[in-house]
Amino acid sequence: MDPTSPNHPSESKREERRQYSRTKVAVAVELQSDKASTPLRLKTADLSIGGLYVEMMFTLEVGTKLKIVLWINDVKVSTGGVVVTRDLQVGNGIDFTDIAPEDRVRLEQFLAVAGNPQSPDSSNQNQRQEES
Known about the structure:
The protein is built from two helices and six strands. It is α+β, with helices and mostly antiparallel strands. A six-stranded antiparallel β-barrel has the order 1-2-3-6-5-4. It has helices at residues 101-114, 122-131; strands at 28-33, 40-47, 51-55, 65-72, 75-87, 91-96. It has a single domain (28-126), classed as predicted glycosyltransferase like domains (Thrombin, subunit H, Beta Barrel), CATH 2.40.10.220.
């Protein structure tokens, strides 16, 4: 068998571990760890029901516990989180740990619109997020 073939046994594909699909969307986010006196204020690179990814030069250690505030359509959505991936000088992947049911519904509704470019509301929501 050709070793450059994608079916070759030595060519293992990276297993998808995400439970939820991600949406590329910039949402204002504040990350607060116990180790810092002020929160990091960033924008998400992508977002899902289960977590987010933020691009940042000085990344956080895997396992760091966080208090997270997302601003979705001018509504504060709070959750806990934990850093699960660290790409040095690139960013962090963060899993949500304890999002309230009503905040989860807000996030699901936002992602349903943001992830559907044919939706008439998606351009308005994305524009509002970029303006903040």
